[in-house]
Amino acid sequence: MSAIVRMTGRVLRSGLPGLIALLAGLALFEFVQPLVIASFGGAQGLDAIMDRIPPALQAFTRTRPEFLALSGLAGYLSLGFTHPLYIVLAGAAVIGFAARALAGEIDRGIVQIPLARPISRSAVYMSRVLGVATICGLLAVTGPAGMVAGLLYARPQGEFVYGHLGAVALNGLALFWAIGALSLWGSAAASTAGRVVAWAISLLVLSYFIDYFAGIWTPLQAIAFLSIFAYYDPTAALVSGHANGTSVATLAVVGAVAALAGLVTFTRRDLPA
Questions:
Q1: Contact, 97 vs 15, CB < 8 A?
Q2: 3-state class of 223 per DSSP?
Q3: What CA–CA distance (Å, rounded) separates 238 from 236?
Q4: Residue 273 forms part of a structural domain
Q5: 264 Cβ neighbours under 8 A, 6+ residues apart
Q6: Angle formed by the axes of helices 193-213 and 165-189, to 10°?
């Protein structure tokens, strides 16, 4: 176990500057959300603006003024956790690590260094799984932490329960774990980091597209359950303070199955000399 922890630390340190930059960007993005809402006069000011948005545009942007009016400040703040930029920053962090830590090292021949010692392939792979889990945990808490800082600084009008951010973090953790484990599976099968990034981003975009447009395009509704974002609902978590247990479990199982498939793939594949 100590060897796995040491390998995890080494791989995490190799990409630490980039990871810190992405985490800082994520925190800054969520920090800005309360400032923007406060500039519009809080939740009441935004309610007046949302009422003027045409119904067709409301459907396209997936905004429901009646729901936002009832959910208040929490409803508006939750939009920061579904924004494409938030997904891109978080996805880049976990996908980049998964691609670099396995396929990238296979491409450069670095993965042969630990394997030349009495360390099994499964131990090498599990160190990467631990790294993915660590990054997912950091991503899950960084966004809510940035939002807390923004709320304390801007103090927008409206009621907000800080404890509800815990449910948002749990929902985010499950989503990032599913993305990271699927990316690691691809990394276990590929020999270059670029292929993993391309595959993982394509899957992420397709999944986001299906979930985003399923509400306004009937043909997509039948396959909406295939999108990992169908099980990611930070709005309900932030408003109610409870993450949907079934959705969290589904994402956790998807990640676990993908991680196990990656382990089987990596231990059985041929590695370049």
A1: yes
A2: coil
A3: 6
A4: no
A5: none
A6: 140
Does residue 158 belong to any structural domain of this protein?
yes
Residues of the domain holding 217:
2-268
Q: Which token pair is 38?
A: 């406060």
User: Hey, what are 16's tokens?
Assistant: 């630490």
Q: Are 62 and 103 in contact (CB under 8 A)?
A: no
**Rounded to whole angstroms, how far apart are CA atoms 132 and 202?**
19
Q: Do residues 78 and 169 touch, judged by C-beta distance below 8 A?
A: no
Q: Any idea which of 1-5, 116-120, 180-184, 207-211 has the lowest mean pLDDT?
A: 116-120
As a whole number of Å, the CA-based R_g of the chain is 20
Is the per-residue pLDDT at 125 higher than 80? Answer: yes
- Residue 139 falls inside a structural domain: yes
Residue 51 has pLDDT above 60, yes or no: no
The single-letter code of the amino acid at 269 is: R
Q: How many domains does the chain have?
A: 1
Residue 191 clears pLDDT 90, i.e. is over it = no
Could you tell me the pTM of the whole model? Answer: 0.89
Tell me the C-alpha distance between 55 and 258, whole Å: 40
